[in-house]
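Re: the 543-residue chain
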Amino acid sequence: MTEAIKRTLRDSAPTRWLMLVMVSVLMFATYWFQDFLSGLKPLMESQMGITSSQFGTIIGMTTFANVFGMIIVGGIVLDKWGIRLTAFIFGGVTILGTVIMALGANGVLGSGADSKLAAMIVGRVLFGVGLETTCVLVTRTVVKWFKGYELALALAINMGIGRLGSALGTAISPDIAGKNPPTAITFAAGLIVLGVLFYFIYLIFDVRIDRQLKEEAGACDEEPFRFSDLGKLATDRSFIAIALLCVAFYSAVFPFMQYAPDLLVNKFGFSYVLPESARIVLFGSGSLGNVSIYVAFFLFGILFSILPTYLKKRSTRLALMAAMLVLFAAFLYALRGTLAVWLHNGPKAAGLIPLGTILFTPIFGRIVDKRGKAASLMMLGSLLLIFAHLSLSVFNSELLCYLGLLSLGIAFSLVPAAMWPSVAKIVPERRLGTAYAAMFTVQNWGLGLFYKGIGTVLDKVNPEVVAKMQQLRSDLAGQGLDNAAISERIESMRLAGEIPVYNYTVPILMLVGCGVISIFLAFYLKKASNRQGYELELPSNRK
């Protein structure tokens, strides 16, 4: 006689994936709001009178509170009082910030330029307070539903949806704005409200799953979070190692991507100008054309990673994979002319790195779920990172340049797909919110250091370029030209080869050190996993 097995909501695959979709709407919205202003800078200057310095202040305020540990406060609230209270507190703060920013931009809180600027800054600060904690909240929710199942794949898809929101926000916002930037700001605020609303609807299911999990665990239920757990987290060598790995790896990727277009133009002779023939237009919009490429890559990544998971017959899986590969090859063939031009354009070639992560991260997440080897894959990703930065700094070969960009794109997909689910194996679930929050905090510190550091070193090793630029700006300003005209003139002189190019060898070579540190940390985690039974090398869906 067999005993009936009690099932919970999370034992149902359709229910798990429905929950992922619901909470990922909020991730999509927060990433959109975080980055959408980058596409509006020229319009904000011309239509709203926002200077470059003021624009930098607005976007910089996003991380203001988080640098001082607000994310950790949010993580503690999450672990101590749970998902629902955290959602109401930080979701409310996020909505408040975005609404204030939208009202300020539209002149509702004051029609003067100073009033609009002040409201947008205050709104951005409040949004920043909720931003990272919201991301931790969503990540923690995904772990709750997928731990023991397709955790790495679910986290990878959630991450991909966030990056898709970032890409679409940057590309589409100018079309939404037209000639009126506050329209795009209002739209972005509306997305945040929609995302939080979806999460609040999810909380209905969260109440039920908590009740089921408590009944399932019974007397063996895990202890609740205690503030003394902070000390345990701070002295956990394995957690410290993976947190430092997070800092080292992302510091070698995100800051590099900000400088990559200029590096490709200065060192490898790529162009800043994209010919009209290489622009993809959809429904009369170039922005929508770019968006369609990102969406297509994301959908291919989903198809390659999810569909084969639930097909039991090997012959059916192979036939489906073959069909999808043919379809993907046809997609690339149809774009061959456009992609050929993109590969010689600095901004577009650099943009292929995040585009590749949208495709590959879900695929690598599925590999971690099915095969494991998370620590080994983090070592492999770190090795690829070293190769990428050596190829782009030391050598002058165009072939090695492309191989370096490809390696960087694979590493940028591989390491996060293995790292984030590994945290859930190293850290007890009651400390997980605080753990993710601490990782986001130290990551922000590292990114801030390298964003500034690369630029500082670049100026130090290229004094003749800096002197030439300063002299040009001074001369052009003396002719009565404004900042916009000066920038246009300098850009035309750069394209004509009248300004010496930057040598990026030393700044990018610094990032090789981040890759070396990452390898040692990943190796340490592999050894720690064997000693302490974290099972990092085992599949994520092993219960």
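Residues 1-5 have pLDDT under 50 and may be disordered.
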